[in-house]
Design brief:
The chain is α+β, with helices and mostly antiparallel strands.
């Protein structure tokens, strides 16, 4: 085996290892990189067979590397998330047609040993060159329109396309013309693969690199051991040169190690309820970091809310006192009431903000759940006076470990929203159901109002999101549902929304067993 063949075989092993590690880690753009690395390995194997003068076998395997072009288009789309809808299917169909042509009738492309151009070689070469040029021009335009990290990622894809074209079709074209430089293919294609891997694996946060570094250290350690073992065996058996054996041993170990890791993690997922594997550990670190950052943000919001509450409450009290004086002096009653309504709204917003940013400690105790819910419904209806719509109750008597005040506030908020939704509907209906289920307790609040606007659904439980504007009859603060979900989660439960088949809205509280 000559030096070029050893490098080609090693490069193919490394490409397979990259594909397997990408599959294992599940990084962004992973599907495209897996395909790209797999077909890159296939292309290198074709050039390896060509370098060994295997004749017909090399002639049939080598064209399969054309799938590399389609895989690159797929990787670019996966990483950048933008491409014309027709581009990926066109790339795959064209590359597959060329690959199958070479596999079935290689003489249409070139002569024996990939020497001399066949009848279809130059037309395909012109089309491939034009497609590569068009892709590069497109990437250049995208690079110019980006900044910072995104610009570097797109620049990496541009470089990968250039090196991939040089190491693939470029070197094969030279070989057909009689200039054999196939050994250089490893260098060009390795650079191409590295650049695509960078574009795909470049993490959004430095802490996310932990999983990648761990996987690289594991593979490198195993590869070093295999390199030492094969070098020792080569020296003992008298096979020369020893360093070539060490290179092949190290490269061959990489896909073996990646496959071992995939197998171990698959078995671990099956056998253990809480598997400790790299992708899940990385995900856990990211979630923990996000929670810590969120807690820090909430603490800052809490401090701000306290300052805002202190600064606003006093002026609101003065405004109410002045409104009372205006009323006594004979001012227009409607104007005075408008002032009071706006002060009440501002006070309610301040209170909600304080509750959201600095929730009080939970006070859990066993209580009659149906009584907590019924009292909350009564409080909600009182705010609407005598004209309050009826609420149909179906409450199963249960004693449950809850924070009665917090759960009552949740029910008040949900029922109030439902009453507002049906207030102007002639046959408005609000129904509240409480029942025991397998996972715990379900508390459902359903109405037949207009329902939640479609645009709000993805952000329904986020703070400061409301479907009722400031000019609405009952303006919202945008914190009610966010507070409700927070309190339910502090009970270990969930709060979800669904749209009934008959229309309206249904909010479901699930409280788990104590």
């Amino acid at each position: 085996m000559n030096l070029s063949a050893a490098f080609l075989l090693s490069g193919a092993c490394v490409a397979i290892a990259v594909a397997l590690q990408t599959l294992r880690l599940g990084r962004r753009g992973g599907a495209g990189v897996v395909l790209l690395a797999s077909f890159l390995a296939l292309w290198m194997m074709g050039m390896f067979l060509l370098e060994l003068r295997t004749g017909e076998l090399a002639d049939r395997v080598l064209p399969l590397g054309m799938l590399l072009a389609a895989a690159f288009v797929q990787a670019a789309k996966d990483v950048m998330g933008q491409a014309p809808r027709w581009l990926v299917p066109l790339a795959w169909s064209g590359s597959l047609a060329v690959a199958l042509t070479g596999l079935i009738a290689p003489r249409l492309l070139y002569g024996p040993g990939a020497s001399g151009a066949g009848p279809a070689f130059w037309p395909l070469a012109v089309v491939s060159a034009a497609a590569t040029l068009a892709m590069n021009l497109r990437l250049v335009a995208l690079v110019r329109g980006a900044q910072g990290r995104e610009r570097r990622r797109r620049l990496a894809l541009l470089g990968a396309n250039v090196f991939g074209a040089l190491g693939g079709g470029g070197l094969i074209g030279l070989h057909v013309l009689g200039v054999s430089l196939t050994g250089w293919g490893v260098l060009f294609l390795a650079v191409s693969l590295s650049l695509v891997a960078y574009a795909s694996w470049a993490p959004e946060d430095l802490r996310e690199r932990e999983g990648l570094i761990q996987a690289a250290v594991q593979s490198a350690g195993f590869a070093l051991l295999m390199a030492l073992a094969t070098a020792a065996a080569s020296a003992i058996l008298g096979v020369r040169p020893v360093w070539v054996a060490a290179l092949l041993g190290a490269a061959g170990a990489l896909p073996v190690d990646a496959s071992r890791q995939l197998l171990v993690e698959a078995v671990t997922r099956k056998l253990f309820a809480r598997p400790q594997i790299v992708p899940l550990l990385v995900e856990a670190v990211e979630k923990q970091t996000s929670r810590a950052e969120h807690a820090e943000t909430l603490a800052e919001v809490g401090r701000l809310a306290s300052a805002v509450a202190h600064e606003i409450r006093n002026p609101l009290g003065v405004i109410l006192a002045e409104a009372k004086l205006l009323e006594l002096s004979g001012a227009d009653q409607e104007s005075v009431q408008a002032i009071r309504n706006q002060v009440s709204r501002a006070s309610r917003f301040v209170e909600d903000l304080l509750h959201y940013s600095r929730p009080r400690p939970s006070q859990m105790s066993e209580q009659a759940l149906e009584q907590v819910v019924a009292e909350a419904v009564s409080r909600a209806r009182q705010a609407f006076g005598d004209a309050a719509p009826e609420v149909s109750l179906d409450l199963e008597p249960l004693r449950w470990d809850v924070d009665g005040e917090a759960l009552g506030d949740v029910v008040v908020n949900l029922v109030t929203n439902a009453l507002i939704a049906v207030e102007t509907i002639p046959l408005g209906r609000v129904q509240l159901t409480q029942r025991r289920v397998a996972e715990g307790v379900h508390i459902e609040v359903e109405d037949n109002g207009p329902g939640v606007p479609e645009a709000l659904l993805p952000r329904l439980f986020e703070p400061f999101v409301t479907g009722r504007g400031r000019d609405a009859r009952h303006p919202g603060t945008g914190l009610g549902l966010a507070l409700c979900r927070k309190w339910v989660q502090r009970h270990g439960g969930t709060l979800t929304h669904a749209r009934p088949a008959t229309g309206g809205a249904r909010f479901v509280i699930v409280l788990p067993r104590p």
